[in-house]
Write a structure and sequence with these properties.
- The protein is mostly helical.
- The chain is 65% helix and 2% strand.
- The chain has helices at residues 23-44, 62-68, 71-94, 102-122, 125-129, 131-143, 161-175, 183-204, 207-212, 214-223, 240-244, 253-269, 273-281, 286-310, 323-327, 332-358, 379-382, 384-413, 424-443, and strands spanning 58-59, 228-231, 234-237.
- A hairpin with a 2-residue loop joins strand 2 (228-231) and strand 3 (234-237).
- The chain crosses the membrane at residues 25-45, 72-94, 106-126, 158-176, 188-209, 249-266, 287-307, 327-348, 386-406, 426-443.
- Keywords: Membrane, Transmembrane, Transmembrane helix.
- It comes from Nocardioides daeguensis.
- This is Fenitrothion hydrolase.
């Protein structure tokens, strides 16, 4: 993560010395929790509970359903999204080319990290406020064309692959590029993103955003862990596990979760003493090594999960090449757990600092929002034991929820005779992810 000037680079766990427990004990406890959870599931959870959209949930309060389903609410959200986007554009174009420009915090902290937390709490936030959807709707109205349908139909075989590529482009800029802290570079990235989105929407309609917009796909996947859903047009409250099970096994889904999981793991790894010593002693540039490592982490995450999925038996009507897609929804809780563990303090501290700087967007000494005097408290920096506990729990809970989701899906896919032993390959992969993830958090 690109640090903002004047902030503590607080998204790492701070090293093993900050923890009230040893690395060995944390990993042992986490693996034990995962294995015990699996054992309990095998005994107590013997039929699929969420397959095929079961558990529609209970209706939300009628007034909340009316408000959130109204046209006025949609217009308000679109307006808020557009105003924030225009404000960010102003800071990008007219603001100072320094890290005190709030544009960097809006881009790296509010947009990338804040969007995840908001989606986990409230649902698919980016779909609701997306300025590219708003611009697309305005353009189609001006031209008299259909907002949902373009001249061409979005190819099913592409699935989420464009979103996976877009997400990789973002994490590459954030973690590898040597120009990630330069205003011109980030401004260009945003311009390319907006251009591609508007062209894609013009060609394929709104369906393009649901599959190819990296931020909408990311937000919508994380939103499946929220307690909110719309079923047949009605707002309901239901288990996040029920929401999670509605993620369709779409092409590119494995690629998306592999990029998200692998890039977060690389971010931890890149701060480790081992990696710092490696590139300091290497005969090639750090830039080259970081490129290879980022691609490697994403590929290894995807391959390990795909191999573990492919090694599980399946019904005759489910091709083996489709298994990884069918189980990929179970990686979403792991991704959220790692985002919480890795970026919690960054979001709180740097997010607060960004809000203060947003009051003076052009560096003129203004206080237009009345927030210029805000200062991060760095509370977690003074309570490392609390921070460490939250981070370890986030990783463990994410993996346990993932194990539950994978188990429920396995009961639908596995032949009756293999419904216990057939899940072991994926369990081994989950155990490896848990141990590896905690090791990286401790070593960063």
């Amino acid at each position: 993560m690109t640090p903002l000037s004047g902030t503590v680079e607080a998204h790492g766990i701070g090293g093993q010395a900050d923890l009230p427990i040893s690395l060995e004990l944390a990993v042992s406890g986490a693996v034990a929790a995962l294995v015990v959870s699996f054992t309990v599931l095998v005994v107590a959870w013997q039929r699929p509970r969420y397959d095929g959209g079961a558990h529609p949930g209970r209706p939300a309060p009628a007034w909340l359903d009316r408000v959130t389903g109204s046209t006025a609410f949609t217009v308000v959200l679109r307006t808020v999204g557009m105003v924030v986007a225009l404000f960010a554009a102003m800071t990008a174009v007219l603001g100072q080319d320094t890290l005190t420009n709030p544009f960097f915090g809006i881009f790296y902290v509010w947009w990338w990290v804040g969007l995840v937390f908001a989606s986990a709490l409230f649902g698919p936030v980016w779909r609701a406020i997306s300025p590219v959807r708003t611009l697309h709707a305005a353009l189609t109205r001006l031209t008299g064309s259909d907002v949902d349908e373009g001249p061409l139909r979005y190819p099913d075989r592409l699935g989420y692959w464009p979103a996976a590529l877009g997400l990789f482009a973002f994490v590459w800029l954030e973690l590898v590029s040597t120009h990630s802290a330069e205003l011109g570079t980030v401004r260009l990235w945003c311009a390319v993103y907006i251009g591609v989105m508007l062209i894609g929407g013009a060609v394929f309609g709104n369906r393009f955003y649901a599959y190819a917009d990296p931020f909408e796909v990311y937000s919508s996947l994380i939103a499946k862990l929220s307690p909110w859903a719309r079923v047949e047009g009605r707002l309901v409250i239901r288990s996040p596990l029920a929401n999670l099970a509605t993620i369709r096994p779409t092409p590119g889904l494995v690629g998306v979760v592999a990029v998200l999981f692998g890039s977060t793991a690389f971010d931890s790894f890149s701060k480790s003493t081992f990696w710092i010593k490696t590139y300091q002693d290497a005969s090639v540039s750090k830039f080259l090594l970081d490129n290879v490592a980022l691609v490697g982490f994403c590929l290894v995450a995807g391959l390990l999960f795909s191999i573990g999925s492919a090694l599980t038996p399946s019904r005759a009507d489910v091709p083996r090449r489709m298994l990884a897609r069918n189980y990929a929804h179970s990686i979403v809780p792991i991704v959220l757990g790692y985002i919480v563990a890795h970026y919690l303090t960054l979001f709180i501290d740097s997010g607060t600092q960004t809000l203060a700087r947003a009051s003076d967007p052009l560096g003129k000494g203004w206080d237009i929002l009345g927030t210029a005097s805000l200062e991060p408290s760095y509370w977690f920096s003074y309570h490392p034991e609390v921070l460490a506990t939250i981070k370890v729990l986030a990783v463990v809970v994410g993996h346990v929820v993932a194990a539950i989701a994978a188990h429920d899906r396995a009961l639908s896919l596995l032949p009756k005779r293999d419904q216990i032993t057939g899940q072991l390959p994926l369990l081994f992969v989950m155990v490896g992810f848990t141990a590896g993830g905690l090791f990286l958090l401790f070593s960063s």
